[in-house]
Amino acid sequence: DQSSRTGGESGSGGRLRALTGCAGHGCRVAACACLCHLSHSRCSCRAPPDSEVIGLLQRVSQASVEVDGETIGAIGQGILALVCAEHGDNVQNAARLLERLLGYRVFPDAAGKMNRSLKGIGGGLLLVPQFTLAADTAMGMRPSFSSAAAPESAASLFDGLVARARSLHSPVAAGRFGAHMQVSLINDGPVTFWLRVEPAQH
């Protein structure tokens, strides 16, 4: 959830990013070996990200979320998306992230290639708020969440994202903003992608 920290400042220059090594960085010899893409830590080859809604997409065969022992959301085959809002995020950012979640081709076609989207297979979407995706782990032994959006703004964006998702797709389930949640999933693959919405060009 995103209810227990205060704000700070964010950088600029973010873009859609999948779970791979940093371009031009030594870690690229083994995709996913470098953790730069999993946080706001700054390697020498990475520009600081702009404020944008973050989505950690996981292809699942099933997933569910519980609060106080009660299942409040569950899906079968589909996508579990952990979502985090940063400072300066707006409805347009969230709408673009949702477009990516629904249209991103992560499901296999008849040839076994990732060529089908969530909408294409009619799969479920489980949205779960998780402010820790905004963590800065560049220094020390404790993460900083200064780039995460203020709780009130983040809650509004998340609720709007869920409402829009339900208007465009079915089935859609969701976690509860501000709650302590237990999230269960079976990652199918495993397949996981880190999505950042490229800021609109002015």
Descriptive overview:
There is one protein chain. The protein is of the alpha/beta class. It has three helices and eight strands; from the N terminus they run βββαββαβαββ. The protein has helices at residues 91-103, 118-121, 151-168, and strands at 54-67, 70-75, 78-84, 105-108, 114-117, 124-129, 172-174, 182-196. The strands form two sheets. Strands 1, 2, 3, 6, 7 and 8 form a six-stranded mixed β-sheet that branches. β1 (54-67) and β2 (70-75) form a beta hairpin. α1 (91-103) packs across α3 (151-168). The two termini are 32 Å apart.
Mean pLDDT: 78
* Straight-line N-to-C gap: 32 Å
Q: C-alpha Rg, in Å?
A: 16 Å
| Percent in helix | 10-25%
Strand content: 25-35%
Question: Which descriptor suits the 3D outline?
Answer: globular
Largest sheet: 6 strands, mixed
Q: What string, H for helix and E for strand, traces the elements in order?
A: EEEHEEHEHEE
Put the structure in a nutshell.
17% of the residues lie in helices and 29% in strands. With 202 residues, it is of the alpha/beta class. The strands form 2 sheets. Strands 1, 2, 3, 6, 7 and 8 form a 6-stranded mixed β-sheet that branches.
Keywords:
two-stranded antiparallel ribbon; 202 residues; disordered N terminus
